[in-house]
Amino acid sequence: MSAVGTSGLQRRRGGAGANGSASPAAGPSTPTGSGPGGASASAAAAVASGALGKAALTGDHRIAYDPRDLDDPQETRAHPRLTLMDECLLLGLKDRQGYLSFWNDNISYTLRGCILIELALRRRIGVSRDGAARARPLSERPLELLDSRMTGEVLLDETLRLIKGAEPMGAAQWVDLLSGETWNVTKIGFQLKQVRERLAKGLVDKGVLRTEKRNFLLFDMATHPVADSGAKDAVLRRVLTLLTSRSGTLPSPGSLYRDEGKAVSAPATRSLALLCCAFSANVLENALTHLAYDAREAAFQKADDLLADFAQWPMAPRSGAAIGSNVAGPAGGARKPGIGEGSMSTEAQGAGVSTAELAKAVRAELVRGDAGEAQFETIAAVLHVLSRMDSLL
């Protein structure tokens, strides 16, 4: 009995043939590609075949993997290492303490908007081009799934699956559902949970943050101080370039992401979206603490103006370089001064890249094909939702 049991166990482990004899070795059988290049050759063959769950040999072990989990060279080449959500969260984190302000109620809602903007920049979703949808308000025009390929970012891929399995809905409804802001119990499952914590852990994996434990009164809490200050400095530099430029002109858009060491798709649009989302999430103040009072107030007013100008379609209609098929702007004269703007010095009011310069750069990216008109309209729709957030919350 013992011999029979042992033989059967060996057959199961070694994958014996039909004759019922055990494999010569008691351990796992060795595949044919076990030479020095066997591991990489097996992986490459599996990727080329598109089969899922094939075994790739690494050392003396078999591992199962999904080729969709591997980095897409096109995604890696065209987009920065940090997503829009990563950058927005990074601006809100305190460098040494490693946590967000306990009083910030806006960032969770804004991060859901960042997810939709990031998907639009990656050409995964866009506003429906159906003629009937054009009559609806901007934030209610339905979003369509244009490309269901996974991005490699967990939150983006989870949102893609939700959009793929749902009926078309507008940007306002999607941001609400992803945030859990709904009374419809049948749509509770659309909520993305623990977004901030998952983003922080993702930044730890990317080497930007590290994990520590801090004691708060009676309990321990995981915090994520900044480990790579260069990554956060690059994000701050992009924001400050738009808000504090003395010349009013935008430097070469490619220089906004020079830290990436590659040509990033739609750099001016990404930087504009980051600035507007940071302002909406109430994390912009962390980037402006070193400025004098007048300069800081002027920067806040500039961010408010840019959000108002680009949160409509066509974008920036009075700039002379409107983005969108219909460039006729709304009726009305010049923009009225913002709250407190009249008391600022002329020098402070002139700070930052002008709306016209930024609109030209964004329009050039549309013409160049960094993203389609449906994607830019999606960005405008999400910014419109975020611009109304104070009245929604």
From TrEMBL:
Q: Which InterPro entries match?
A: GPP34-like, GPP34-like_sf
Where does the protein end up?
Golgi apparatus membrane
Any GO molecular function: phosphatidylinositol-4-phosphate binding
Per the record's keyword annotation, is Membrane included, yes or no?
Answer: yes
**Lipid biosynthesis is among the record's keywords:** no
* Annotated membrane topology: Peripheral membrane protein
Give the compositionally biased regions (Low complexity).
19-41
- Per UniProt, which keywords does this protein have? Golgi apparatus, Lipid-binding, Membrane
Q: Which PANTHER family match?
A: GOLGI PHOSPHOPROTEIN 3 HOMOLOG SAURON, TRANS-GOLGI PROTEIN GMX33
| Protein's name in the database | GPP34-domain-containing protein
